[in-house]
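Subject: Sanity check before I submit

Could someone independently write out the structure tokens for this chain? I want to compare against mine line by line before I put it in a report. The sequence has 92 residues.
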Amino acid sequence: MKEFKRKNQLLSLCGLNCGLCPMFLGKYCGGCGNGNSSCKIAKCSLEHGNIEYCFECKNYPCAHYQYVDEYDSFITHKHQKKRLKKSATHWD
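---
Independent answer below. Compare away.
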């Protein structure tokens, strides 16, 4: 998604810890906003004013987060909601 750009490449807009991801560390992925794959949450961000983090959205938490912690055990996904909540409190 060429129109989607972000400054912070270590914490994605949805709370993934890209700094722990082997794809990011191995330079196979440029991180959130610079990666090669299309992301439904990046598209959602653009639709909601190009927010930097999902917790900034008036609709957060939305359906994208309904089961996010239940199924994916990949290290970057662990504690995704908790990480966003912690980031939101530091944001204020």
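---
OP: Matches mine. For the report I'm noting this point. The radius of gyration is 12 Å.
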